[in-house]
Design brief:
The protein has helices spanning 3-11, 18-50, 56-68, 73-80, 84-96, 118-141, 144-164, 168-175; strands spanning 71-72, 100-105, 108-116. The protein is mostly helical and 203 residues long. It has a 3-stranded antiparallel beta sheet. The radius of gyration is 23 Å and the shape is elongated.
């Protein structure tokens, strides 16, 4: 049975079989993977047109800092999914070209705080603008009905991902100290201006 025949039989009130549903899910999966590769390629071109000496993982580190503000080295490593030594080498490389500023946390001398320099912020903005422009050019090539169909489909995919994945920005803000972490509360002697100490839970 062809895919067209399966849709025809379904239109007469017959529910799709498990095999048909599985085939459809596989086709959607392959289409999403192809779109993902396209977006990675667009990001690579945007970065190469701006600074061909950087890698996509390094760009991702810069985007984390641009989105979430100053973070600790350990948070950077966790967000990128790499170990601390790998994150440190990446930070040292980005610091050496003036894109990241690395300072000791005045409230805890054992911690290092990372933030974008003005040069780093400008680089991220130029790369993202370039990427957005190229994506918009592709979208504008689509027929109007295809563009309209993409919006609900992509929103549905994003919503489905939110049900099974941790929001990376929310996680960075939590671990970075911007949101109270019940597993790592601020001690009573924390200096004024730090995070509020979370209230004790009642059972």
């Amino acid at each position: 049975m062809t895919r067209q025949d399966s849709h025809r039989s379904t239109s007469f009130g017959e529910p799709p079989s498990p095999a048909e549903l599985d085939q459809e899910a596989e086709e959607v999966t392959l289409a999403v993977m192809a779109a993902s590769r396209l977006l990675v390629a667009i990001s690579a071109r945007a970065l190469a047109s701006t600074d061909d000496s950087l890698t996509l993982p390094q760009l991702r580190a810069l985007v984390v800092l641009e989105t979430c503000g100053p973070v600790k080295l350990a948070v950077m490593a966790a967000t990128l999914g790499v170990n601390s030594s790998t994150a440190l080498r990446m930070v040292e490389r980005l610091e050496s070209v003036g894109l990241i500023d690395r300072k000791t946390n005045p409230d805890n001398r054992r911690e290092v705080i990372l933030r974008l320099t003005l040069t780093g912020r400008d680089l991220v903005e130029r790369v993202l603008v370039h990427r957005r422009t190229e994506i918009r050019t592709l979208v504008e090539r689509l027929p109007a009905d295809a563009r309209a169909g993409l919006v609900p489909a992509l929103k549905a995919l994003t919503e489905a991902a939110a049900e099974v994945a941790v929001d990376p920005i929310g996680e960075v803000r939590r671990v970075g100290g911007l949101i109270d972490d019940p597993l790592n509360p601020v001690p009573p002697e924390a200096p004024q201006g730090g995070r509020r100490r979370p209230k004790a839970r009642t059972t």
